[in-house]
Design goal:
The chain is an all-alpha fold. It has 7 helices and no strands.
């Protein structure tokens, strides 16, 4: 079973995820940031589902293991499309939405194929290994794409404060998760410590997004001097 600290972190994460949706509805930006809110809604539903499986089947059960890894893969895919939606905001004036969607589907399909190929060569071809491999690879791709998006924000002199904060928060989130995956792979003996940090990392993104959506007006703009000067 989970410790009291685990329950508290889990409850806070679910509360922050629900807060993102509530703040978006209150500020009337739910449809504008649909995929971001969809990701948070899925997180809330998955948290409730994991809670039910944990109570009835136990943490060490096969049912909980399958539910955890496959729900995590689903959440990672939805977060990937949330990231692509932020790309659409940055490049909306260039009318590249169709190409961005096509590129996202191709990247997702390529990542799934690569993950399957890696698991297929393993001696233990468990379905949970595929879900774990897919999530891990998508997190690293998300990290690269987020920093590429930040470079585009600097290059295009994007000044919308809310959009900038959403992208920066996502960059920190992806960086933290990618680092945890890398450390657990390189130093398996540290896995137990990384496992304790993962729920805390999970609280960061919804907390940052809820705060940004609630506090930052949609029309707020950064002064040009606040962004790094990038030669054109």
């Amino acid at each position: 079973m989970l410790s009291p600290a685990d329950w508290m972190i889990w409850s806070l994460a679910t509360l922050f995820e629900a807060a993102v949706v509530v703040c978006s509805v209150h500020r009337k930006v739910f449809r504008r940031y649909f995929f971001l809110n969809l990701y948070m809604l899925f997180n809330v539903l998955v948290s409730l589902g994991r809670f039910q499986v944990l109570i009835h089947q136990g943490r060490s059960s096969v049912e909980y293991r399958y539910f955890y890894f496959y729900s995590d893969a689903l959440l990672t895919i939805v977060l990937f499309f949330a990231l692509i939606s932020l790309y659409s905001f940055v490049f909306q004036e260039l009318q590249l939405e169709r190409y961005l969607r096509l590129g996202a589907v191709l990247v997702l399909a390529g990542t799934a194929w690569f993950s399957y190929a890696v698991v297929n060569q393993s001696s233990a071809r468990m379905l949970t290994h595929f879900a774990f491999e897919l999530s891990q690879n998508l997190y690293f791709i998300g990290l690269v794409l987020t920093y590429a998006l930040w470079g585009a924000i600097l290059k295009l002199r994007e000044t919308r404060v809310l959009l900038v904060q959403l992208v920066l928060s996502l960059g920190v989130y992806f960086s933290a998760y990618a680092a945890s995956y890398a450390i657990s792979n390189l130093r398996p003996n540290l896995f137990s410590y990384i496992y304790l940090l993962v729920p805390i990392i999970g609280c960061l993104l919804p907390l940052a997004w809820a705060y940004a959506i609630w506090r930052v007006p949609e029309e707020a703009r950064l002064a040009p001097a606040r962004l790094a000067v990038v030669p054109r």
